[in-house]
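Dear colleague,

Thank you for sharing your sequence with our group. We've completed the structure prediction you requested, and as agreed, I am returning the results in plain text so they can be pasted directly into your records. Please verify that the sequence below matches your submission; if there's any discrepancy, let me know and we will rerun it promptly.
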Amino acid sequence: MTPFLYPPLQLKVVTPKLELHGATDDLLAQLLPIVRAGIVSQPPYPFDDPMSLYEDNPVRERKWLQAIWRGRGTVYPESWRLYFVIMLGGKAVGMQDLIGVNFDTCQTVTSFSWLAPDARQKGLGREMRAAILHLAFEGLGAVEASSEAFFDNVASNRVSEVLGYQANGADWATRQGEKALLHRWRLSRDDWAVHRRNDIELIGVETCKPVLHIK
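Please find the predicted structure tokens below.
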């Protein structure tokens, strides 16, 4: 009997620098030491509240895993979340998520990501965002992507700017209980096409579409 393979866990996005693999439990286990050690240890804090990655151990890793497991099973035509582990030279170094927002009517997405501290400042943030945008626009037919980052998250804001996002206002959120300003960004399909790359490979998209209610 052929074992059942859940299509979102078989998805891959391959670029010349890195690979995004569907976040299986085996791959999540490889990330656990990074989560346990702590992704953020000092300001500026990149995540808004509530965020399990700010919790103390062992609550941190337990809530992190529970959120991913819960997200896997919460799939509707209008909203879904795909979780990917970033693989660099065969080593798990972070996560990149793609989130459908009113996807059945508006075909819009947003994204979320983090990297291990020792994997930062190597150009990987831009590469993994380009990879997930390629999946969204080329693979899943998105028409718009959004992003947001705190005003002092220089790296994330710079990635959005370089990849063609347009400034889309500001908002407030809290982090560690303190309010802070968010920069909001918007990327249309036409603006993405200007930066579209031809060296990114998508694997397993067609078998995943029915799970996400995409025709």
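Summary note from our side: The chain has a mean pLDDT of 95.

Kind regards,
the structure core
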